[in-house]
Amino acid sequence: MAVNVSKLVNGLLSGLDPKQQEILEGRYGLKDGQIKTLAAIGEAKGITRERVRQIEAGALRTLKNAGAKSDLGALTNLIKSHLKNLGGLRRESLLLADLRLMVADSNTGNFGNKVRFLLEVSGDPRLAGEDDVYHAYWYVTEEDRKRAMNFLNKLVKTAEERKSEVVAHGSIDALLQESTKSHNLKDLIALNYISLSKQFHVNEYGDCGLASWPEVNPKTMRDWAHVILRKHQQPAHFRDIAVMINKARKGAKKLAHPQTVHNELIRDARFVLVGRGLYGLREFGLMPGTAREVMARILKECGPLIPNELLNLVLKERILKKNTVLINLQNKKHFKRLEDGRYTVTV
Which residue among 111, 137, 143, 189 is least crowded, i.e. fewest CB within 10 A of its CB? Predict the structure, then answer.
């Protein structure tokens, strides 16, 4: 028999008196989708919030007894079986999405509120409320819950210890595979566990890591610019960087303004000005300095070079016109031409 959530709710409520029905409908948002407080219901009915709480508690006790004799078991068995296949837990929002494909009346109004009501009446599986670390989730046994928490805590610790490796690869995939094997878990279960945690984040580019890492979850303009340039893989003008930030942050209340981006980049040591308004990343080997300073550094590192060799090396770090390099070479105060046509720095 196909499970029908609305019929289950209506069948349970029909055994209550009108006042109990109204209070449960208000407390769980079963009728209009609006979950009401004890105080709000009490004010509307002219009774105290404590009296509302007493009526609610009494109604739920009645329903728990009635639920054992109803078809509620078909729903809970369906959900528990689904949870077991996923490691015994499931984030509430994802479980509701799953159930929409598994029950007969998935398009019913206030579907999520009705499912939560039915599961709370059943008492099995159990709900863990949302907190600073985890999203709200349903779980079958305490053992399932502890196994998931243990896996997540160890994965977070390992990710912190190997942050540079994860950031370089743009994903925790390698660590996840290692952790999955060491905990003897299926890939699907490991990914399901990760969905419970607020400590992990996947950004607009598909990079996955800890939500506390600006390389994965940027919040400031300079962090966004850093992520953008890492993906762009080459220097870009600050106006173009602002455009790319806004494109990646679709729906953001505050747009990135070019001048703000420019002001942020010029003060951050991670960025190097490589041309007029053009910025690159120091981590790509770019070093700060004027064209002349870059030329002098390259000659000190590589030794004497012919103009074309020097030009090619400079253009890897700076977006300059060829004449800019050649004109600077004529400055005898800083550069000296050798007899074989190569140039070196003036001692």
Answer: 143
Alpha helix stretches (DSSP H) within the chain: 5-13, 18-28, 38-45, 49-67, 72-85, 92-99, 111-122, 142-161, 163-169, 173-182, 187-196, 221-232, 238-248, 258-266, 291-302, 307-315, 322-329
Q: Taking 70 as the threshold, does the pLDDT of residue 70 lie above it?
A: no
- The pLDDT tens digits of the residues spanning 293-304 come to 888 989 999 999
Could you confirm whether domain 5-67 is CATH 1.10.10.10? yes
How far is CA 282 from each of CA 118, 272, 279, 289, rounded to the nearest angstrom? Answer: 57, 6, 10, 12
67 confidence band (pLDDT: 50, 70, 90):
low
Tell me which amino acid residue 208 is: C
Please name the residues in contact with 77: beta carbons below 8 A apart, sequence gap of 6 or more. none
Q: How would you label 7-28 residue by residue, b for 16+ Cβ within 10 Å and e otherwise?
A: ebbeebbeebeeebbbbbbbbb
Rounded CA separation 47/41 (Å): 8
Give me the residues paired with residue 210 across strands: 200
- Sorted by sequence, the CB contacts under 8 Å of residue 251 that are 6+ apart come out as none
Question: What are 233's two structure tokens?
Answer: 């893989």
| pLDDT (0 to 100) of residue 284 | 81
CA 33 to chain centre: 28
pTM, two decimals, is 0.75
CATH for the stretch 221-284:
1.10.10
Topology of the domain comprising 291-345: Arc Repressor Mutant, subunit A (1.10.10)
**Which tokens in the block code for residue 275?**
């041309």
* pLDDT exceeds 70 at position 75: yes
